[in-house]
Sequence to fold (909 residues):
Amino acid sequence: MNAIWLLMGLLLLAYMGSFLVGGQSIRGFGLPSGAEYLVLGLLLGPHMLGLLQRSTVADFQPFAEAGAGWVALVVGLDYGFVGQRRVKLRNLALGSLLSLAAGALIALAVYAALAALSTMDRGELLLCAGGVGAACAETTRHAVRWVMQRHDASGPLSTLLAELADSDDAVPILATALLFALRPSAHLPWQASALGWAALTLGLGALLGLAAALLLGRDFRLDESWGVLLGASVLAIGLSTRLGLSTMTTLFAFGVAIATVSPHRDEVWAMVEPTERTVLQPLLLLAGARIDADAVPAGFWVIGAALAARVLAKGATGLALRASAPARAAPPALGLGLLSTGAVCLSIGLIFALRFPGRVGDTVLVVAAATTIFGEFVGPPLLRSALRRAGEIAARSTSSIITPFPFRLTLPPAARRPTAPSPPGPPPAPPPEDAP
Amino acid sequence: MSPPPSTPPRPPSTPPPGPASAPPSSSPPTSALAAKGLSTRLLQGGLLLLFFGLLYGVSRAAPHPGPHGGTAAALGFLLLAGTLASELLEPLRLPHLTGYMAAGVLAGPHVLHLIDHGAVDDVSSVNALALSLIALAGGAELKVDVIRRSLRGLSWAMALHSTLGFAALTGVFYACRSLMPFVRPMAAPAAFGVALLWGALAVSRSPSATLAILSQTRASGPLARHTLAFVMTSDVVVLAQLALTTAAARPLLEPGSTFSTAELGSLGYEMLGSVAIGTALGLVLALYLRLIGQQLLLVLIALGFGATEVLRYLHFDAMLTFVVAGFVVQNLSQQGDALLRAVGRTAGLVFVVFFATAGAHLDLPLLRKLWPVALILVSSRVVVTWALARASAALAREEPLIRHWGWSGLVSQAGLTLGMSLIIERSFPAFGAPFRALAIAAVAFNEVLGPILFKYALDRAGETGHAQARPGH
Fold:
């Protein structure tokens, strides 16, 4: 398959993805993590059907970098918010702490497995284990929102979980900056430590985010704003790629800076949010096509160790949460409902594969993909069950997990629910045609 | 030059007669921007310097970005720097695309070298999308009734420029042949053959520059309408003329070869095929707009890249196909405005990237080498264009506005001319490379000068937002 056909395929996926966020479409279609596109990429990729050659996929490397960065920008803009409501500071800290603990445990397990079973040197071990830990630390906010929207869940536990899932993205994204800084690829005029490189990563994003916020100005003009936002974010992606920094961290800082400084955070969010799924699905396909399970040393054991550590970490998270008032009625398996990973996890896996081609990058990407697929089977059903046990899902909700076809279905006005208890989540997205 | 005829103020309730409809625009009218104060300009200048500084620092810290490594930075930088430069040049009443090009030239491989050749080439792949959108918008701007109304003027202008203009510019080139090292040693008939090719090249115009200026200024009125209709329709004539000239020049340039109609045959195939495919594409697009009407951005991107690639494979002309598609949507359906709106949303971004890349592509060392002869050819082209535009307007009894300013929009040259020079280079490898270099040098002048002239004329004719905001308009 040549590049132009791949491009057409990616655009088709983006087209389908954009319907998933249409203003009046029924939400909760497809799989929450988007794992089906990952599997599609894997099937089409060089290691299965061979329809996508490695060289063709390599041609799309700038797109993959940019896509991962864009995902991080969306996360950054939304960081500390659920919809237009600010996340409680306590939950922000708790979410970060829990993802730090989960990531550390997973990194330790992978480090031990690789140290025992592979020939990697210490530097590679650190990068690989750290990368897997960073990728697998989060619970995807998409899964939590997906279950809540699909099953009309609402209540204190739903709110808590949505806030935690939203808050736990910062730690893994920041960790990638530190890990990338262990192997700098550019030469600064001064001697920089790993922390210095990480600070440069954040500083670059924050500086360009600030510049973008200044250019957005006081009066919000949609067309001009797209130019500013795209220009500044693509410049941030390009500069950080060229310096070998983590594009995700740079763009995360970029998004946080805009959300913090610009008075137009809500408008920018409304512009950008509908594009996440549009970007994500082609990105997942590219990630799937890059997967090379054979390149992972002691693959079975490494994946097993990562999954076991993640189950342990999330299980413990659930038990810890049950001590809080909102989760008191939840079952002990609440934590396993948080096993879903998605956009952030796979994007981290992909940027590791791009930045450290070879066994380090391949290992991180393969484990990220395995964790996502595993989480897809376990997370949403257990989360639904936990929310039902907590009394936050009405008994009548019996929808199946997998919906066959993701095209827009618009309900007639009479059939639409009144605005009654809206789940904590982003407001209905505006039609994405406003994109440039 | 006598003072321009003024345009009476339009009553507010009357819709401006405008080019077909308001051209796709993403920029506020000039008058709105004029309100931006000194602090805003200082901020923009400071940020522009910051972006230059950042790119400079990074390109020194990581001088070898690897394949595709500098593409994203180049794209982002050109978008931002082009936009900011255009804003900063605005108080001088220069068109935005001059700012876009200035940013590209400055950052490009021949000046500061912040963006290397590889990155410029990578970013240029976006041009396929840009050209398709420009052509779609151009076609959609052409309404049958507008063309019918200005048919007389268009016919005269087309006839004079394609015959007398062609002949005059061929003559100027032939007269200057001793100044051009690659023509000097040629025998007179061969030199005349090269001059014929130059004549065909010189009568081409720039649809992209025309649409960019109309998009920025939101100009509406007889001058905008006339220029747009002429430039878009002259595309087809120019391509036919190039094929005819190539066939005629070949026996002069390659002794032993005879006049062949093969090139005309293939041109006929290309044009008829392009029109047929464009019609089908336009109908499908109109149907899509009517039945679904969503995600137009993705549909346009798919068309821009995918359809362009398919058309290239089939040896059809993508530009003509998209012009016809836009024309069909506008005139055979009621979806013309929807298409223009959709294209208009992307227009700002597309024009910045397109012209900033063109600026980065500008071969300054070559221009330094060829500027004297290029300048002679460019100035004579301006004079010939001015004279013929006046003559055709007089013959067609056009209104004074067209008679006075009609030539101003016909000076710009850009991608179409460069594409034609590439065709000539491939057809005549013996002198194709220096011929193309000269064409690039001439286009460089016209690309900078043309838009400035056109915007100035629109302002003076009272057809831009800026002019309409002035007292007395």
Chain B touches chain A through 48 residues (CB under 8 Å). The CA atoms of residues 227 and 409 of chain B lie 6 Å apart. The two ends of chain B are 22 Å apart (CA to CA).
